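Two folds, back to back.
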Amino acid sequence: MKITGSKLTRRATLAGGLSALAAPAIAQSRRKITLVYGVPTIDSSADGFFASIPLGMGYYAEEGLEVEIQTVAGAAAAINLLISGQAQFATHGTGGLFPAVSKGIPVTGFCCQVPEAFTSVAVLKDGPIQRFEDLKGKTIGISAIGGAPTFTLNTVMRNLGWDPAKDVEMIAVGAALPAFDALKRGRVQALVEWDTIFALFEFNGGAFRYFRPEPMPKFGFQHCSNTMVSTIEKDPALVAGMARALAKSVVTMAAAPPEELAKLHFKMFPASRPTTMSDADVMRLDGLRLAARKQFMRLPERVFDRSEKIGDIDYSKVSDMRDLLFAGGEITAALPVERYFTKQFVETMNGIDVAEIIARAKALRV
């Protein structure tokens, strides 16, 4: 799937709904670049912080950028496009960044959009399991065996003195409605998924009791945008421009009316709009997904009270995730935290006029 930023931004402008916001950037001569997303689909406004918001609001264009967004199956595929020079930037979960860096690939994160762990363990709310400890001896469904969620769950069990190989059975159930069906039918007694997936299940009638036992809350640094170290060295102005656009998008995600963000998403990505659902249900599902994602982005601290910096991440969160993956055998080297994330562009991201962007976001009408 390819989405070309210039065409979408122009189409939004001519449609009238965003003309006051995007029009000043249209006449600029812009540099063409590619941003690749390590997931096959862009389903909702929960992904707006790199997609519909900077495209529709003209934030990429304001930085002199014409951004094409490509989607691929997995972070490894996204990073391969960086390595080959077919893309300048990638954005995805950090479960794909760590293995690449640990193998010596000179890629690094420069903007962390989701700093908190968004994976949870859930059971049916009306079921017999009241505590995570009640899952000993039970079967747990996980999106895929291997990767950060698996090793996070293993760490939780070891913290309780359990043997992950003996005290539970883990089976792969995917990250779509069949996983929810497996829980309802009793094939598994719990699910390990992430925020927007549980929002989908709740939309389809799910009522859950959520567990986030220690040390799950420690494992942040969940989603960031990345580039090659050589790009930073040769063209830091390009990375700075992308960083500013992404920072503006985080502010807009925090401040804009959720229903307008949903409209903006479907305007930019019309193919993602479900065709078998009513307009009301489409908006309700998108609202659930957006709310689920926002709760892990620390938007009050980053945007409104400014006690934390937009796009930044505490290096302790990086080291916690690194150590988790290293202990689980997912990575073969535990490198210095600076190799996984650079703070070079943090001040750039926080030099934007946050108050002005909040005002623009609140006034958004699509």
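---
second:
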Amino acid sequence: MKNLAPNPEGLLPLVGQIYDSATDPARLPGVLRLFNEFVRGTTTQLFIRDIGTGAILASQVGDAAQEAMGRHYVSHWGAFDPRVKWLASRPANKVLRCHEQFDDAFVAGSSFYQDFMVPHGLRWSLAGRYPGEPGTETVIVNMRPAGARPYEPWAANALLELLPHFERSGAIAAKLERQAAAVQSAMAMMKSLPTPCLLTDHVGRCLEGNEAFSLALEPLAMRLATGRVRFVRPDVQARWESALFEAHTTALPATMVFTDAGGRQWKARLLPWQPAVEAGDNADTKMIVALFSEVPAQAHPMPQPGSMAATARLTRAEVEVLAGLLKGLPAKAIAARRSASVNTVRTQIVSILEKTGYSSQKELMASFSVSMLPDSAFASSAFDSQPRIGETVSR
């Protein structure tokens, strides 16, 4: 009965434990122990290897009694491991059962086996690998003593099924680690500011806030619910969500102005925070820093959004850009019409929103009309007859 293959359904709890270890690395030794029990081995080792140099960067073993072996492997024997060399020359979906590749004559003449494996009471190995962070790979090896049987096909199949789960779990853990570093970097900056600051992720969850933000929650008529900022007034909450969405999708600063419970006016400046990461990883690291500052009382009231007085604060170039927006043109088309760069036009759009008191282009365009503006290059009938960029001219 001992040699019978275990029930394959026994892998399911192990798969769950593998993904749990992504968020709690302290669980990884337990995962390695469970795998060791499933394949009836003596110990399981997981190590990270630099593909370019062959150096072993880190090692983890499931059995605390084997930690000294793991350290010895990293410091010296990893560079002479014939199992790693065999795996490196094969596709990642190939699993090594060492008795199929290394016979007794090879083992007798191998210093790796004679001076490392045998002194630790080990002989048989089952190994597989998967890609890790750029330039690295991770190898998982289970080992049995000389008195045990070589690994059966079912054990190799079990490892082959688990390797993709180990790979995905490792990728999740790496992304969480990078995000944690980015949060710490942003928090270091925020703590130095006396004004309330909040760090949100790409879906608006509250990651961190400085001390001033915690003290300002009640005066600003805000609260934290299910990890998100919630304003007491529904209209302010809607503007906040709109500004968050705009800052995330455009990667440009967004601004909203609101009034607190005491009648004071505040400005929330939302700045996209994009730490340096590897290509293709941007979607998981986008964050937004929200800076709250009280708007000083003014001798003259702020012009109402959408009024002629609001447009009087715009420069001639900003009026031209506003006219283009009201014509329904994207920033790229406005830039082409004005012989300007797209970044310049986007900066002007941010300035227009600040000066007119709106938090999004959608609100701005709903409150203005081209007829409210002075003459512009976008207001001419000749321009109306020209095709827009991306439009097809019908015959």
